[in-house]
């Protein structure tokens, strides 16, 4: 994976990754069953990327405009403790999180896909949107992913951060270890 030097410099500083849900962790579509139950599909490779990133020392949070039991369950499964749901104006939650974590804005990365994410995207150290993010967002972020929302954007960003910080190889070494010894 080639990482441009300017992107690697931004990613090296990251201590916390914030994610939007719809259009980032999911494919941006809402699914409902006949009974009205909301359904979402999460990409498992994104989930494993988050697990590796957390093991590498970069924590993760979610700020989403919608409220969903499915998102709460996914956060529980991935041990994501910083979850803000039902906040259409995401900036106050971001500022609260920043104060709680005692981090500088340049230590934060954020993946968002729509114009409601811009108030955060313009205030942080490393801003990212999926390949299918809104044009107004694409023109204002540091990095446009090679992947669309719900299909690998989070994994790609996790790997960019880990590779830039020199922590990715420890995960490869673990999976490539020789168990015959």
Automatic annotation (TrEMBL):
<dbReference type="InterPro" id="IPR010023">
    <property type="entry name" value="KdsC_fam"/>
</dbReference>
<comment type="subunit">
    <text>Homotetramer.</text>
</comment>
<dbReference type="GO" id="GO:0046872">
    <property type="term" value="F:metal ion binding"/>
</dbReference>
<feature type="binding site">
    <location>
        <position position="22"/>
    </location>
    <ligand>
        <name>substrate</name>
    </ligand>
</feature>
<keyword id="KW-0448">Lipopolysaccharide biosynthesis</keyword>
<keyword id="KW-0378">Hydrolase</keyword>
<dbReference type="InterPro" id="IPR036412">
    <property type="entry name" value="HAD-like_sf"/>
</dbReference>
<dbReference type="GO" id="GO:0008781">
    <property type="term" value="F:N-acylneuraminate cytidylyltransferase activity"/>
</dbReference>
<protein>
    <recommendedName>
        <fullName>3-deoxy-D-manno-octulosonate 8-phosphate phosphatase KdsC</fullName>
        <ecNumber>3.1.3.45</ecNumber>
    </recommendedName>
</protein>
<keyword id="KW-0479">Metal-binding</keyword>
<feature type="binding site">
    <location>
        <position position="20"/>
    </location>
    <ligand>
        <name>Mg(2+)</name>
    </ligand>
</feature>
<keyword id="KW-0460">Magnesium</keyword>
<comment type="similarity">
    <text>Belongs to the KdsC family.</text>
</comment>
<dbReference type="GO" id="GO:0009103">
    <property type="term" value="P:lipopolysaccharide biosynthetic process"/>
</dbReference>
<dbReference type="GO" id="GO:0019143">
    <property type="term" value="F:3-deoxy-manno-octulosonate-8-phosphatase activity"/>
</dbReference>
<comment type="function">
    <text>Catalyzes the hydrolysis of 3-deoxy-D-manno-octulosonate 8-phosphate (KDO 8-P) to 3-deoxy-D-manno-octulosonate (KDO) and inorganic phosphate.</text>
</comment>
<dbReference type="InterPro" id="IPR050793">
    <property type="entry name" value="CMP-NeuNAc_synthase"/>
</dbReference>
<feature type="binding site">
    <location>
        <position position="113"/>
    </location>
    <ligand>
        <name>Mg(2+)</name>
    </ligand>
</feature>
<dbReference type="InterPro" id="IPR023214">
    <property type="entry name" value="HAD_sf"/>
</dbReference>
<dbReference type="Pfam" id="PF08282">
    <property type="entry name" value="Hydrolase_3"/>
</dbReference>
